[in-house]
Design brief:
The complex is a heterotrimer. By secondary structure, chain A is mainly α. Helix content of chain A is 75%, strand content 2%. Chain C is α/β, with parallel strands linked by helices. Chain C has ten helices and twelve strands. The longest helix of chain C is centred in the middle third of the chain and has 14 residues. The chains are: A mainly alpha, B mainly alpha, C alpha/beta. Chains in contact: A-C, B-C.
Amino acid sequence: MNDLFNFRRFVIALKRLFFEKGIKLLASLCLVFSIIAMLLQYIAMINPREYSNTREIVLAFSLVLGPILYVWIISDEHASESKSIAYLLTPFSVLERWLLHVVVGLSAYFSLMISGYKIIDIWIVSGIHDRISSSQTHLQKAYVEVLQELTAFSFEPIFYIPLFLGIIISLTIYIGTVYFKKNVVFYSLITLTVVFLIFFGIHFFVAELIFGEELVFEPRSVFPFGSLVIKPQNTLYRTYNLEPIWTLKKRVFIVFVPIVAMISGIYYRRLKEKQL
Amino acid sequence: MSIDFKKSNPIYVQIAYQIHDKVLLGEYPEETKILSIREQAIKFEVNPNTVQRSYELLQQQELIYTKRGLGYFISPGAKEKIKILRKERFIALELPVIFKNMLLLDMNEADLIRYLEDYKKTIKQKNA
Amino acid sequence: MITLQNFSYSYKKERPIYQDLDLELPPGKVYGLFGKNGEGKSTLLKNMVGLLYPTKGVIKVGNAIPKERKPSFLADVFMIPEEVYIPSISPMSFVRTYGALYPKFSFDHFCEYQDKLDVPETKNLKNLSFGQQKKFYIAFALACNTSVVLMDEPTNGLDIPSKSQFRKLIAATMRDDKIYIISTHQVRDLDMLLDHILIVNRGELLLNSSVGVITEQLAFNFYPQRQEHATVIWQEEVVGGYAVVEQNMQETETPLNLEQLFNTSVMAPDKLKEALLSSKTTVL
């Protein structure tokens, strides 16, 4: 028997997840989808002009916050001692458990989430389109631009940030289930927020060391690896926006990929070393 | 089925005695196959090793024997041997208690015989 | 074979539960593990199965190190905790999914054991009561046919007929290559099934002896009066007289009284050890 990975065992692990949590997972996805659909439909009915902006915010939020419930359901194996015993003693390897949660679980969520979102988006856009074509022609003209944008919509690099944030939150909750017995999501998110704030603080602190009084304290300046707002001393009113040399896409990958690798590595270790 | 093991003999001896009783009562005639060690253990809810000890004791007393691959069987003449064993035990352990009580209660041999006759009568009536 | 070398365990550094314990448990036996509540019975079992890691020393089960929790090890041990967790799925999905993970699992045996323990039919295991779930789990655990089965208070929550069936199942499934360890404080439920007694108290192994040696060396007697001779190891007043544990001077043996043995091991541990050490036969 291979103690690291065995395909047959992995299939059983998948089966187990499906039998024991399939319905709950589906329900959590449906919940996220219905919230998205309701929000988008509401905006599309009330103010179609704002639709293209709103849907981006909605997508960002559903990537960041959407997986919370789903991930908690998957990893909820240690809520009680007897539950934890049953899980830890089931003959799966650490790698199989990790792959199931991190790789299969997360890729299933995000691919389902993005494709579900696409379907909802197409459905709503076609609704807007129908309404426009049945009304006056001058309105139709006004919407042409928006519509082109809508139909040309693709998953742009700007969404990598919420996607990675969503993955980081998911992994944090996974790790949280190993540490906390109750209120896992709450404690995990608090911990993550604290870590984020520390990073923001370090970033701002370093920026202030370098620029001193010239640094302007505003939200844009706080984000690590983002831009800095500077007001040179010899100018009275003008502020300057210092942009990093790398493109957004490059920065996202350079920053987030190591973080995700590190956190998922921590999860592997915690799974391996988990005691009652 | 489980037996009352509260008497002052170890369990393995009690199981052996129970088999003695079955032979004496004619439930196990000579050459009958008796339950295997595991079956007996399940029946009495005891450890198979305990029954193993009982069977070893019974083999020592030459009351059972093994046929290879077939199991345990009651030896020829087992009933007579048990009677002898039991008689020895009765004389050594149980009679002294009776005698001690008789002396304490001022009873004599004649009383004993009378009660024995009464007992025989009731047994006969019961069987009739 | 389960071996513990130099085994120490503590939840908190200042209060160790076990300290430098050496123990060897050969296969083919039913071990009874006794101790007061909170004296580390479950802790010992959890260490043997890799749910807790020794703070010091090594535990080996066969050739495996439990704390590594390799699938090949996990597929050959089973632990029945006092409170079992059963997912809310149908019995058939449970048995098919989990049974596939244990190479020696037998579906026929499972059906037989389930039948004997009188587990009712149900569409979802969550509909079963606590005791019924436990019986279902016991039937499954024994049908997995693992080399090591650790049971923590297995008879808790079982009704009277099930306790009897449970004993029958233990007798029926015990094999020379298996190790059963039953941790309990219900001394009367299981005493006749045991080959070997382990008693722990305050992290110390007070007794580690086979039932054969115990009954050979010790006599469990009842006297109307208090006994004063030197062979008495421990006595206590009970209804109608004194329950006495003494050195066995006779050729014959008395039946093992676990309750008395337990009290003796706690109250007079040194005298008890001395009496058992005088055994001429080997301890194991």
